């Protein structure tokens, strides 16, 4: 019974949180928890402690990897723009939609965080609504907290 139950008369009686004929299926959903707090990122089902991604674009252990989706920079561009410069497509909904990261403004591009820090870091260059370039970095630390540094 894979150590997760007791064999009685050639039938496994599973301990709590386990199921299956050999008690090899965990009912614990914590390995399926995505960084946004949803089971399998809301794009799959948790079966035996493993995500079965139902949206074919998404893969990975928690259905968070998407090779064909917008990059980090494009995804966060509108929120960075409204928080830093009070303009852009999300200007009116900024406080509802764009408070999911800590933001720090820096004076110049050379003051942005540089690669080599422990957290994954994306350097971004995006155009704003006035067709001007703006620069920011996006990183997520081990606690799942996102940080943005944007050039004033």
From TrEMBL:
Keyword Ribosomal protein assigned: no
Annotated Integrin beta subunit tail domain residues: 73-152
PROSITE patterns associated with the record: I_EGF_1 (PS00243), I_EGF_2 (PS52047)
GO terms (BP aspect): cell adhesion mediated by integrin; cell migration; cell-cell adhesion; integrin-mediated signaling pathway
Lineage of source species: Eukaryota, Metazoa, Chordata, Craniata, Vertebrata
GO cellular component terms, A-Z: cell surface; focal adhesion; integrin complex; synapse
The protein, known as: ITB1 protein
Pfam families noted in UniProt: EGF_2, Integrin_B_tail
Gene Ontology molecular function terms on file: C-X3-C chemokine binding; collagen binding involved in cell-matrix adhesion; fibronectin binding; integrin binding; laminin binding; protein kinase binding
């Amino acid at each position: 019974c894979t150590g997760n139950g007791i064999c009685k008369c050639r039938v496994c009686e599973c301990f709590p949180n386990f199921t299956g004929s050999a008690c090899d299926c965990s009912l614990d959903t914590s390995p399926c928890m995505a960084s946004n707090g949803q089971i399998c990122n809301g794009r799959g089902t948790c079966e035996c402690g493993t995500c079965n991604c139902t949206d074919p674009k998404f893969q990975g252990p928690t259905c968070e990897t998407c090779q064909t989706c917008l990059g980090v920079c494009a995804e966060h561009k509108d929120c960075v723009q409204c928080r830093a410069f009070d303009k852009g497509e999300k200007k009116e909904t900024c406080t509802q939609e764009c408070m999911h990261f800590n933001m720090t403004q820096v004076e110049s591009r050379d003051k942005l965080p540089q690669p080599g820090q422990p957290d994954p870091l994306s350097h971004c260059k995006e155009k704003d609504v006035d067709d001007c370039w703006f620069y920011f970095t996006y990183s997520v630390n081990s606690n799942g907290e996102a940080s943005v540094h944007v050039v004033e």
